[in-house]
Amino acid sequence: MKKKLLIPAAAIILAVFLVIVNRDLLSYSYDTLLEREFTPETDAKRDYLLLGPLTLKPGSYILTLELSSEGYGSGIMLVDGNEDNFYSADLPYGETNPSFSFDISGETKQIRFGIRYDPQTTSSLRLERVRITADHIVYRESILRHAVLSLLLIITALLVILRICFPETLWKLFPAFSRRKNEIALLMLVCLTAAACYPLFNGSSYVRGEDMFFHITRIRGLADSLQAGYFPVRDQLYWLNNYGYGVGFYYPDTFLYFPALMVLLGFDLLTSYKVFLVICSFLSIAAAWYAGLRISKNRTAAAASAVFFAFAAYRLSNVYYRGAVGETQAAVFYPLIILGLYEIFFGNREHWLYFAIGFLGLFSCHIISLVIGVLLTFLFLLTQIRKMIRRPEILIPLLKSVLLVAGIGAFFWMPMLEQSLTNPGLRINNVLEGSIALNTTNYAFPVQNLLSRFKTWNFAWQADCIYPGWSLLLVPLLGAALWNKRTGSVKTADFLLLFSLPVIWMCTRAFPWQWEPFLPFVLRIQFAYRLLLPASVMLSLSGGIYFAQLIRERNSSLWLCLLTLFCFFSTAFPVLRESVQNRTVDKRLFVMQDNRVSGGEYMPLGLDNTFPGKNADTVLITESDKPLTVTAHKRQKLGFSFDYEINNEDGPVHFSVPLIYYTGYQGTLTAEDGTVMKIPVSWDSRGLVNISGEGLSRGKITVQYRKTTIQRIGEALTLLSICLLIYTDRQKIKDKIHFRRL
Predict the structure, then answer these.
(1) Does any domain span residue 600?
(2) Which of 19, 190, 453, 487 is 20 to 30 A from 300 in CA distance terms?
(3) Shared-domain flag, residues 380 and 405
(4) Are residue 628 and residue 578 in the same domain, yes or no?
(5) Is 202 within a domain?
(6) From residue 673, how far is each of 381, 644, 666, 670, 696 by CA, in Å?
């Protein structure tokens, strides 16, 4: 009887939610804040294009403004992709919320909105907000987005119904959750994630991180490149006026394909970015829990480890202050590396895959974190040198891990190495060579920050704002409380604590990074305080073990709640409050800019990030740096073609094509008689594609990015390594089954 009532009730609730989610399926809405003011003192009489381009399908639209105007004679205008004015209207006198109706007829158009300002008749005009809406217009992105949301709702409803009415069926599908403890653990991880990600759940705003725009542009570049048919994506579209930016050669994008696919499914960039951060936070907290469970064999210790790491100050700073998406992803994999080393040296060496997966994860998201992981692993191996000498077979899992990471990661490291060797004009080569100066004021945090409870963030002085937080300072105190109890798990916690202390020292200005033996390393990782992330993982795992040993399962739930409250209010709450109060920005103020390249490490040395926007599609003569007479041109994907005419009396001429040069561009020249010849491509002084006219006064030159042989070999090695791993695992499972039968 209970099931008969629950199922119809759940179906009705699901139907209501589906209606709510899909109520705007056939509507279009664009809403942005401008806060643009026009005055006679600052603005001349002319047309000002303020927005766009926006891609609108055929249909009827309503344009609504929020403004304040003193005077008359000014108006609005809409221009199409050819910059032809297809709609204009005067601003009505005295209205603060005027609305205008316009139609898009024929084909889909790219439009831009602008203001026609006349200072002689309008003393001041302040435009606050622009909104464009439409009903009964079908957009592919809208259909895809609503389909995904509806599917997620249906799956969630089915899981809830199965859990309540048919738990045996659910447990057959997910055997791990047949144990109530696992369900409780999952619920705890979800709650910790929700608490740590609170500022991300406001759909009308976003938290401004320092590198956030750089990483969001990476997501946009990936989405545009995937849509254009490139995979794997290395040289990304969208950046720098579609000149192409080879960020993917040096900054791994593997996990960013997920938010990029969300964008292709119709979700906006900020939503995709925030969803990705929430998922990374959940996985990093879950990884700390899992590593704590495997190392301690104690669920209380695992839960406490998750609490410590969920509210670790530096992990939160990466999410909300620094916008460090690479390190936010790396937080998922450091616990697996520690777990892998524990299994190899103190547990079951057959579980070496944890170590390999951890490093493969770092390899796939953040090369600097990979370098840090290699350094800390090397230091750990030094502490185990005697064991390795006595038992050299312990090196076999380490060697397997290195080979596996190198094999699966071949799709990334081989093209990166090729690019560095064949394209020396990139700024990143100076970083790799360590030929840059150390920023002595912003590479490590002051020693006194070790005792800080909270530091207000200052972009100009980031290092001064880094600190471990009081929650992690509790860990040594917990260890001191167990001074007379040195059991096996406590010894493991002691090792993690003692190992983390010098790592934290390396994060401070007390460590002599300026000395010659240490300087090359810190120059390559940019900021010594990055070491605080793996140190936080070690302290979290150590603190979890200490905590479990102290309470000895006595009222463990109560003590865990108290620990959670202490860690949250002493460390996390100040960061979250600061983020919401001072770093939250209205979503309508978000504007994409294709020239936000952060430090521009992957640009050519001679190229300014404003040049592509100013130069646009202009082809230059390399020898004189003057525009070329181009009769026709076309930019398509990562390519550019143009018809030219030139006087070759002064000798052969080279052309500077509006594409940033990376190894992989190929060129062809079509003569007047139709003959097509391949011509070599190189780089010019700016780092743009440089190509010769081969002495012809007329012709058509086409430059297009293609995969190189090295890239194809790397991808083949990656596929081969994955296939070998799957085959080996399947063979091991078959061997175990055969052994049990015997």
Answers:
(1) no
(2) 453
(3) yes
(4) no
(5) no
(6) 67, 15, 21, 8, 11
Q: What angle do CA 195, 198, 203 make, to 5 degrees?
A: 150
| Cα–Cα dist 367/330, whole Å | 10
If one counts every other C-beta atom within 10 angstroms of the C-beta of residue 274, the result is: 21
CA distance 375 to 466: 21
DSSP state of 474: H
Same domain, 696 and 724: no
Closest CA to 641 of 662, 655, 653, 651: 655
Query: Across all residues in the chain, what is the average pLDDT?
Result: 89
| 80 and 86 Cβ atoms separated by less than 8 Å | yes
Res 627 pLDDT > 80: no
**Crossing angle of helices 532-551/367-383, nearest 10°?**
50
Residue 705 near residue 625 (C-beta atoms within 8 A): no
pLDDT at 737: 44
Q: Tell me if 442 is assigned to some domain.
A: no
* Burial category of 144 from C-beta neighbours within 10 Å (exposed 0-12, middle 13-18, buried 19 and up): middle
pLDDT tens, residue by residue, 389-428: 999 999 999 999 999 999 999 999 999 999 999 998 888 8
Q: Give the rounded percent of residues in the chain with a pLDDT score beyond 70.
A: 96
Strand 688-692 and strand 698-705: the pairing is unpaired
Shared domain for 77 and 106, answered yes or no, is yes
631 and 562 in one domain?
A: no
C-alpha to C-alpha distances, 160 to 2, 147, 278, 375, nearest whole angstrom: 15, 20, 22, 46
Contact predicate 637/702, CB 8 Å: no
Quick one: which H or E segment has residue 433?
A: helix 428-433
Q: Are residues 567 and 624 in the same domain?
A: no
pLDDT value for 418: 95
Smallest CA-to-CA distance from 357 within 712, 729, 717 is with: 729
The enclosing domain of 39 has a CATH number of 2.60.120.260
The domain that holds 689 is classified in CATH as: 2.60.40
The confidence score (pLDDT) of residue 731 equals 56
Q: Which residue has the higher pLDDT, 62 or 54?
A: 62
Number of domains observed in the structure of the chain:
5
Taking Cα atoms as reference points, which of 439, 366, 442, 359 lies closest to residue 400? 359
Residues 106 and 152 in one domain: no
In a domain, 196, yes or no: no
Specify whether 104 is located in the same domain as 213.
Answer: no
Rounded (10°) angle between helices 470-480 and 488-506: 140
Range of the domain at 59: 30-135
pLDDT band at 445 (very low <50, low <70, confident <90, very high): very high
- Rounded Cα gap, residues 237 and 217, in angstroms: 10
Segment (H or E) for 75 = strand 75-79
Residue in the block written with tokens 């936070």: 281
Q: Is the pLDDT of residue 219 over 70?
A: yes
Reported pTM? 0.91
